Amino acid sequence: MEATARQAESEREHTDMPTTLRITSTVQITPLLDIQHEDVAQFYREGVSHSIRHRDEPTSLIYLVTCLKRAITVQVFDGQHQQTAREFVGFHLGTIHGAVLTSKGTRRPDVSTLVLLESKDAIRGYRAGRHWLFEEAEPHERHWTDDYVVNRFHELALDAPEWHDDPEGVWQFTLACLMGELSGHVFPVTPKEQARWERERQEARTWLARQEARGIQRDTEPIPVTVPE
User: I need a surface site. Which of 3, 146, 195, 207 has the fewest CB within 10 A?
Assistant: First the structure.
């Protein structure tokens, strides 16, 4: 486990900013992640092109969950089929990215999330991912490589069999969280998000102060003493 953690940390630290990727002779974009493998670049390019031509709304998170479940079922993310896993990551992240872009490669003005969030679990997960990205992550943690995303999906394949309570809700929360973490390069933090996070911090400080006050009150209350007759 320590070796895996060190490898993932190394992959995150590999770059400070994803490099650009040429889609057509006139369209060049910055991918959602730093692409280290040519097969990922090829499938990412195909995914972006497909979505720009054929999609009129962001990719559904439910659809992405379905595709990932199917890939896990046929052992794409068993650790033994890395090329196929990279191709999956490249194409699907490419289609997700392309679905929020115009034909000129700029972000569409009519979308505000990287994927369609169709449940409360998805909304909570996406918000949690963006909160981590903008409020908690170190600078080197904000830029991922394609190998790191493959490892994240591999971890999901290992963890999913243990999700006995509301597995579909856990799937949507977990994958939406990952999408939220990836979204910051296309969707910068908004004033509304900053206001919500500040409100949540204030609520947490208020709750903590109340808990501390109750603890002090309990500590200073006199202990009842029974005097023997």
Answer: 3
Q: pLDDT per residue over 141-150, tens digit each?
A: 888 999 999 9
Please give the backbone phi and psi of residue 125, each rounded to the nearest 5 degrees, phi first: -65, -45
Residues 81, 27: one domain? yes
Residues 53 and 152 in one domain: yes
Phi, psi of 14 (to 5 degrees): -60, -30
State both tokens at 157: 């394949």
Domain with 153 in it: 2-188
DSSP 61-85: HHHHHHHHHHHHHTTTTSSS-HHHH
3-state secondary structure of 116: strand
Examine the domain organization and report whether 31 and 116 are in the same domain. Answer: yes
Same domain, 53 and 68: yes
Task: Kindly tell me the sign of the dihedral angle through the C-alpha atoms of 28, 30, 33, 34.
Answer: positive
